[in-house]
Write a structure and sequence with these properties.
- The complex is a heterodimer.
- Chain A is an alpha/beta fold.
- Chain A has four helices and five strands.
- The N and C termini of chain A lie far apart (63 Å).
- Chain B folds into three domains: 93 residues, Beta Polymerase, domain 2 (2-Layer Sandwich), CATH 3.30.460.80; 46 residues, no CATH class; 291 residues, Cytochrome-c3 Hydrogenase, chain B (Orthogonal Bundle), CATH 1.10.645.
- Helix content of chain B is 42%, strand content 20%.
- A four-stranded mixed sheet of chain B has the order 1-4-3-2. In chain B, strands 7-8-9 form a three-stranded antiparallel sheet. Chain B has a three-stranded antiparallel sheet with strand order 10-12-11.
- In chain B, helix 14 packs antiparallel against helix 15.
- The radius of gyration of chain B is 22 Å and the shape is globular.
- The chains are: A alpha/beta, B alpha+beta.
- At the A-B interface, helix 1, strand 1 and helix 2 of A face helix 4, helix 5, helix 8 and helix 9 of B.
């Protein structure tokens, strides 16, 4: 056990990550037909080399606790209903983030008969994270930039 | 054995009346089941089954008059999902396969696709398709009494994108991309199997450089997957130090992938007919050193996990898949070997570079979670040794040499991190007519359900992680 914990301490020292600005955002992930690449990289974003949690971003088990719905995949016909149920279970205000090229509608994947997407047609996307799959750094950077832009837009004085 | 012998494929067309007997006689000759699929493009519907004896593939094909033929599940229980899929996608009825429950189709009524389990206090627990963690989509319906699981019905195909249909009419280079994107974690396995199917159909055989490069890519894929899987089992029992250590090791392996090929999942590294990957001696030596360090660190971390009393208590005896069940269900990959099924495609892969390969075996092939995790640890050591051997020399571009006659049908078989992955490919004048992908995950999902019987419900996430099957490449 102590060998493992010492190893972890060493990894964290060598990664030398800085803490971000205070933030509290809970993210619910839904796979709507992904190849699992985006899932692997989202998981990697929580490993000690990236540590998404240090930026105040956490992944939550229930959509009822989530601020952001993070969707991967081209939205298959079979996942459309489950995706909508998860979205409608979320408290407002809520944001939708599209993770990866498939969710952004630029994938090459699939037979149109089996797809309901792109996601854009089904839910309002606020944050776009391109890549196939996006790297853990890209996921963190786009989430932070997207959340900050949304907050600025909400706090901006109403013109006129 | 020469590469030409490895490419031997025998296609036998037969009437539907002879279907069952012929499959039976080929199996009696010692062949293993590879895959079964149907096409509804032409009427009557065409059904194809691929069987393999050593490295010789026998493909039997028939047409189903009135869309019905005899089932072969009595001969090959491993073909159960294949027949259910062929029914849902091509409308074939398999006489004798009763009940023929929907697999790809998703009827709304639960009773239409689940096994009736009746008795006092029996109830169902439904999980998914959305799960608590960062996990692919799929639905599990447990039939339980108290915490005891009597039976598990799997409903996958939430990620069904119709990739095989999308491949029809495309150029082989486009279909290769579809096979790759079927599953990120199996991208190399799927594309090498596809490339083998295409190249062998053209009568081609890879030169030494191409065989070495593809083996390097396959083992790099195995390296990060096996590291991932050990970490996932630790996460499944809440053993955070092990989960974090192996997540870090996986990250280091994926950075090697990116340094060598420009992609953390090795996307785009497998092409048809050739390989452009070139690694000079200096970079090969550097990568070799980094892989050696990962191997040593993984061995140290694994010892700490394996010697931890609470971990041993949790993994031992959980989710047992007996040797008899594994044989019957055609369980492959590390999960099969953990139950005592010695088969490993790498032992008979003349199109790749596995000199003197011997499949790893667990200390005790008990078929439990402990044995399946131990298999990953043992295969990691072997995987690092293969990679270090391959990186002793520079990696040079390679290509295919045509050594035989061209046909319109080819097959590729590789050992993915999860087991036997098969691609069957038919093409005509530069257009794909049919691509069928049957991955190790597809083969092993029914084995997961079998291993779950009699387990307690809270052990399911752990048992599931010990197989760590992909949903995406099963669903396609």
């Amino acid at each position: 056990m102590f060998v493992l914990l010492r190893h972890l301490a060493k990894v964290r020292r060598s990664a030398a990550l800085e803490r971000g600005a205070p933030r509290s955002v809970a993210i619910r992930h839904v796979d709507a037909g992904s190849c699992n690449g985006c899932e692997h990289e989202l998981g990697a974003a929580t490993n000690p080399y990236y540590d998404l949690q240090r930026l105040g971003l956490s992944l939550t088990a229930s959509p009822r606790h989530a601020d952001v719905l993070l969707v991967t995949g081209p939205v298959t016909t079979r996942m459309r209903d489950a995706l909508l149920i998860a979205y409608h279970a979320m408290p407002e205000p809520r944001l939708v983030a599209a993770l990866g090229d498939c969710a952004l509608g630029c994938g090459i994947l699939g037979d149109p008969d089996q797809l309901s997407g792109p996601l854009e047609k089904i839910l309002p996307i606020s944050i776009r994270i391109p890549g196939c799959p996006p790297t853990p750094e890209a996921i963190a950077a786009h989430l932070i930039a997207g959340l900050d832009a949304t907050r600025r837009a909400r706090n901006a004085p109403v013109p006129g | 054995m020469s590469a030409a012998a490895a490419a031997s494929v025998e296609l036998i067309e037969l009437p539907a009346a002879a279907w069952h007997d012929r499959v039976s006689s080929v199996l009696a000759g010692g062949a293993r089941f590879l895959a079964l699929y149907a096409d509804d493009g032409a009427r009557p519907v065409r059904i194809t089954v691929a069987l393999r004896d050593g490295t010789h593939t026998i493909i039997l094909r028939t047409r189903a008059i009135d869309a019905e033929i005899p089932s072969i599940v009595d001969l090959v229980p491993a073909a159960e999902w294949d027949e259910r899929e062929a029914h849902d996608l091509a409308g074939v009825r398999f006489a004798g396969h009763t009940p023929l429950r929907p697999l790809v189709a998703h009827p709304p009524a639960t009773a239409d696709w689940t096994t009736p389990v009746i008795g006092e206090d029996v109830h169902q627990v439904a999980v998914g398709p959305i799960h608590a963690g960062i996990i692919e989509s799929g639905h599990f319906r447990f039939h339980v009494v108290g915490e005891r699981i009597l039976h598990l019905d799997l409903r996958l195909f939430y990620n069904h994108r119709g990739l095989e249909d999308a491949a029809i009419g495309t150029a082989p280079e486009t279909a290769l991309l579809l096979a790759q994107r079927a599953c990120a974690a199996c991208a190399v396995s799927n594309t090498v199997a596809f490339a083998q199917a295409y190249e062998t159909s053209l009568g081609g055989a890879p030169d030494t450089a191409l065989r070495r490069t593809r083996t390097l890519l396959l083992e790099l894929e195995r390296l990060y997957n096996h590291l991932n899987d050990i970490g996932a089992v630790c996460a499944g029992i809440g053993f955070a130090p092990g989960a974090v250590a192996f997540a870090g090791l996986k990250e280091r392996a994926q950075r090697i992938n990116a340094a060598l090929t420009g992609h953390r999942f090795l996307f785009g590294s497998v092409a048809l007919g050739s390989s452009a990957l070139a690694v000079d001696g200096r970079q090969a030596a550097e990568m070799r050193a980094r892989i050696g360090e990962i191997g040593r660190d993984a061995a140290t971390m694994w010892r700490e996990i394996d010697r931890n009393g609470s971990v041993r208590d949790r993994l031992g005896g959980a989710g047992v898949l007996s040797f008899e069940d594994a044989e019957r269900l055609g369980t492959c990959g590390p999960a099969g070997r953990a139950s005592g099924v010695a088969h490993d495609v790498r032992a008979q892969s003349p199109l790749l570079w596995y000199p003197d390969f011997a499949a790893a075996r667990p200390n005790d092939p008990a078929g439990d979670v402990a044995a399946r995790v131990e298999m990953r640890a043992r295969e990691l050591a072997a995987c690092c040794a293969i990679l270090e051997e391959l990186l002793h020399a520079p990696i040079a571009p390679g290509q295919i040499a045509v050594i035989g006659p061209a046909t319109d049908l080819g097959i590729g078989v590789v050992e993915s991190p999860r087991g036997q992955t098969v691609v069957l490919l038919e093409h005509d004048r530069g257009q794909v007519q049919r691509m069928h992908l049957r991955t190790g995950s597809y083969a092993n999902w029914p084995s997961l359900a079998a291993a779950t019987t009699d387990a307690i419900l809270p052990d399911f996430p752990l048992i599931n992680k010990s197989f760590e099957l992909c949903y995406a490449c099963a669903d396609r």
